[in-house]
UniProtKB/TrEMBL annotation:
TM helices/strands, residue ranges: 1-15
Family: Belongs to the glycosyltransferase 2 family. GalNAc-T subfamily.
Listed EC numbers: 2.4.1.-
Domain Ricin B lectin stretches: 448-573
Principal localisation: Golgi
SUPFAM superfamilies in the cross-refs: Nucleotide-diphospho-sugar transferases (SSF53448), Ricin B-like lectins (SSF50370)
UniProt GO MF annotations: carbohydrate binding; metal ion binding; polypeptide N-acetylgalactosaminyltransferase activity
Keyword Ribonucleoprotein: no
The protein, known as: Polypeptide N-acetylgalactosaminyltransferase
Species of the source: Panagrolaimus superbus
GO biological process: protein O-linked glycosylation
Length: 579
């Protein structure tokens, strides 16, 4: 009874002091920090140094001390509990200037403790599922973080969150790959600082700008853990994030598992949770995109919101993968540069070559989403991105690469380089076709698995073509002089009868009047009657099936009219049409 009383007293004391529950990084146990108390890494390291410190040059020591003097370790300071901070208007100019360094509010980040608290966002089901995981049975993890000119406080906040919120016995090591940054704080002071962390941290400073793809490979090559876990350098992990990811990989080594990626505001650094019914897809531009998980997948999961979502693609930055499996399926495409494209490439490859991709809703990691990229793209931004995407298309997309090239004609002009080693890999692994992927993994894709045409839809009499005019939805669907390049004039008539340009569909809209107009609308997964058209190859008519009327060009818009009498404004050539 005595012990019970003491326990209860301690419990009340703890609650009363709103003490912060966090992981004891030294023993893999719970550590209680009292209100206002900080867990300074240097203090922790004193208890159990991981590395024998060698001779430290005084200059580095001083530089680190200066950095640390400007770093907040106050758990209850501004931004605690995931809150955002607002900068005083008097500092507006300085704030904007600092923003440019990383394309996020660096001043806000610097105000917030690198040690800040975050709420536990998990559902009770997620919590109890995770609590029942025996972490001692899980394999060890190497966390790999690559960065180019990352800010000091965002990088440290990520490291702290990992160290405090991960069971110590799961963490084999943290590997930092410095992709040829030119900021002093990422050099010797960082080397010294991480030595004092209570988890082994290895840093590699790459001798040239390698891009995130090759930088990650530099990390995976030296990783000792059974599981690799890649993270961006401006993230914060939340309570219980790690065991669910590792459990799924451990149960099936061919699973690649991502957390839910929450939003850390680039403006205030507020932690904002993202939807747990979102998965990854892609569009004709070969951009990764978030979409609502379709009913099909919700029902496969028996509507259990704690169960993993089988996602067609992953965002790319945050995922766990069995190391051996990562190598078995060909790591990354080393021909890709700087940034972009690798996320869809690995997504297609994992599914097509026998693995699977999941988002685990019981694991949440925040990421600072930016509106603009902060760094240079050696070789030119568009060129690099097109180059990477074209490699993905050439190797994995078979005939469906036409959708990409029609939508992004500039990508045809860039040199994709030699893709033969990757094609050989696909051959060796006996990977399935892209059509299989679309039909079985991603039938909701904006790229239709079965289609009758891809290319322009032109009216020979006027030489006008269907054109989105850059709009996604609109009162009236437009036409413009055919330019033969694609882009806004890239359309596909699908087997189901949608006429779509990426995610935009031609729709027959019946308003209050008797006339029916043609509009642009967002395509739906199951097309409704207003989106269903057929093509009469002989008469060259495009017919709205439900009304039996024909699409005609009038002035600079499309309209629905009676198909008789025949007139040249209802006559359409549909490029690459195959019934
Ligand atoms: O040349 C470079 N070298 C690098 O080391 C360029 C970048 N990097 C580092 C960079 O410092 C960062 O740590 O690589 C990491 C990712 O770069 P970001 O943060 O600029 O990328 P992002 O968050 O804008 O983009 C997403 O898509 C990328 C495509 O290449 C990568 O896959 C990113 O990892 C990925 N981020 C996420 O998935 C987080 C969620 C964002 C979304 C959607
Ligand atoms: Mn990022």
């Amino acid at each position: 009874l005595g012990w019970l009383v003491i326990d209860v007293i301690i419990l009340f004391y703890t609650l009363d002091n709103s003490a912060i529950q966090t992981r004891n990084v030294l023993r893999g146990e719970r550590l209680t920090l009292e209100k206002g108390e900080t867990a300074h890494p240097l203090a922790l390291a004193e208890k159990q140094p991981q590395h024998q410190e060698e001779h430290v040059d005084p200059e580095t020591e001083e530089a680190l001390n200066n950095l640390l003097a400007g770093t907040s370790f106050d758990v209850n300071g501004p931004g605690s509990n995931g809150e955002g901070v607002n900068i005083d208007p008097s500092k507006d100019a300085e704030m904007k200037e600092m923003f440019k360094q990383n394309q996020f509010n660096l001043m806000a980040s610097n105000l917030i403790s690198v040690n800040r608290t975050l709420p536990d966002y998990r559902s009770s089901k997620c919590k109890s599922n995770t609590d029942s995981i025996n972490v001692k049975e899980l394999p060890s993890v190497s966390i790999i973080i690559v960065f180019h000119n990352e800010a000091w406080t965002t990088l440290l906040r990520g490291l702290y969150s990992i160290i405090y919120r991960s069971p110590r016995n799961l963490l084999e090591e943290i590997i930092l790959i410095d992709d040829y940054s030119d900021r002093a704080h990422l050099k010797k002071p960082l080397d010294l600082f991480v030595q004092r962390l209570p988890v082994p941290v290895h840093i590699v400073h790459l001798p040239e700008r390698s891009g995130l793809i090759r930088a990650r490979l530099a990390g995976s090559d030296i990783a000792k853990g059974k599981v690799l876990l890649f993270l961006d350098a401006h993230i914060e992990v939340t309570e219980g994030w790690l065991p669910p990811l590792i459990t799924r990989v451990h149960e099936d080594r061919k699973r690649v598992v991502a957390p839910i990626i929450d939003v850390i505001s680039d403006d205030t650094f507020e932690y904002v949770t993202a939807s747990d019914t979102t998965w990854g897809g892609f569009n004709w531009h070969l951009n990764f995109r978030w979409y609502t998980v379709p009913e099909r997948e919700m029902s496969r999961r028996n509507y259990d919101r704690a169960s993993p979502i089988r996602t067609p693609t992953i965002a790319g930055g945050l995922f766990a993968v069995d190391k051996q499996f990562f190598y078995d399926i060909g790591t990354y495409d080393k021909g890709m540069q700087v940034w972009g494209g690798e996320n869809l490439e690995i997504s297609f490859r994992v599914w097509m070559c026998g693995g699977s991709l999941e988002i685990h809703p019981c694991s949440r990691v925040g990421h600072v989403f930016r509106k603009q990229t902060p760094y240079t793209f050696p070789g030119g931004t568009a060129k690099v991105i097109h180059h990477n995407a074209a490699r993905t298309a050439e190797v994995w997309m078979d005939e469906y690469k036409q959708f990409f090239y029609s939508m992004v004609p500039a990508a045809k002009q860039v040199d994709a380089g030699d893709v033969s080693p990757r094609l050989k890999l696909r051959e060796t692994l006996q990977c399935k076709t892209f059509r299989w992927y679309l039909e079985n993994i991603y039938p909701e894709a904006p790229v239709p698995a079965t289609y009758l045409s891809i290319g322009e839809i032109s009216n020979p009499a006027t030489k006008l073509c269907f054109d989105t005019m850059g709009k996604k939805t609109g009162e009236s669907a437009g036409v413009s002089p055919c330019h033969g390049i694609g882009g806004n004039q890239a359309w596909s008539l699908t087997k189901e009868g949608q006429i779509r340009s990426d995610e935009t569909c031609i729709s027959a809209f019946r308003g209050f009047s008797t006339s029916t107009t043609i509009r642009l609308e967002k395509c739906t997964v199951t097309p409704s009657e207003k989106h269903i058209f057929s093509y009469d190859e002989e008469k060259k008519h495009i017919i709205h099936v439900q009304s039996g009327k024909c699409i005609a060009v009038k002035a600079n818009v499309l309209e629905l009219e009676d198909c008789e009498p025949l007139n040249s404004q209802m006559s359409w050539n549909v490029a690459n049409y195959q019934a």
